[in-house]
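Hi F.,

I've been meaning to write this up properly since the lab meeting, where we talked about keeping a consistent format for the predictions we share between groups. The idea is simple: the sequence comes first, exactly as it goes in, then the structure tokens exactly as they come out, then a line or two of notes. No screenshots and no reformatting. I'm using this chain as the first example so we have something concrete to point to.
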Amino acid sequence: MASRGYILLQISLLLTVATTAFSLSPYYYKNICPEALPTIKKLVGAAVYKERRMGASLLRLHFHDCFVNGCDASILLDPAPNIDSEKNAAANQNSARGFEVIDQIKAEVDKVCGHPVVSCADILAVAARDSVVALGGPSWKVQLGRRDSTTASRTQANLDLPSPFMDLPALINNFKKQGLNQRDLVALSGGHTIGFAQCFTFRNRIYNATNIDPAFAKERRVTCPPTGENTNLAPLDPTPAFFDTAYFNNLVKQRGLLISDQELFNGGSTDNLVKSYSLYPEAFWKDFAKSMIKMGNIKPLTGNQGQIRVNCRKVNY
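Output, unedited:
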């Protein structure tokens, strides 16, 4: 008869296997479909080459996915009788984009793999990394093995996605709810070194803020009048097609476009980090990569949870 100690050891080992069997791994597709990641990289590179702004859009999709019930591709689901699409949430409506690129990637990846084995959630995570790299930014090993949700929540998206009008305490609390700290907040906000924002998101700042460079405010008012033209675009930093530290340099000069941007350098607890990133690009790159991995680990569906969608826009039935 086995000793009590041996039995306890076996139980302990089984519990360890049970808790780690479905953990994410950068090598998840190595044997299942080795061509998956190179295919995603190729298609993201082509999409960004065609339109540099697409890199920011794909990065944002992953961010907006993870902040609503975890990284589960819920943001990709179209409205349906039982799906209250997150695409209609305030932060996404007429704003989130890149869905067609994800559709194209999904179709091509399923083709090279022979059948649907790569989740839409993993495609979002890899496409975000490859977009940053395509725009000259850092790379990192994306943790893989997520599965796709069968639900979406516009209500949760409205509650959990950070607003461009938030002050620093609200931003800190918003990220804390996702298990992210102040360093993650500042590093991930550095994603605003690429892309654009719509006039309605920064109008109040350029006309009413006191913590803004007057010349910068005047420059932005040219294409964002006091009323109307809500969808006119402005770059989030002077080099929106390159992943660099111009975003942080701008904040130090009080030239942040959004209220939520400038709040990171406004006499608060994140000032030193902003200044550090503006001076040391390597520190920003390193922390951005770490925070992206951390964000990508927010409540993933693994194992038998969720499903691998055939069409990223629809639940499999």
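Notes:
Residues 82 and 167 are 35 Å apart (CA to CA).
The chain is about 50% helix and 0% strand.

If this format works for you, I'll send the rest the same way.

G.
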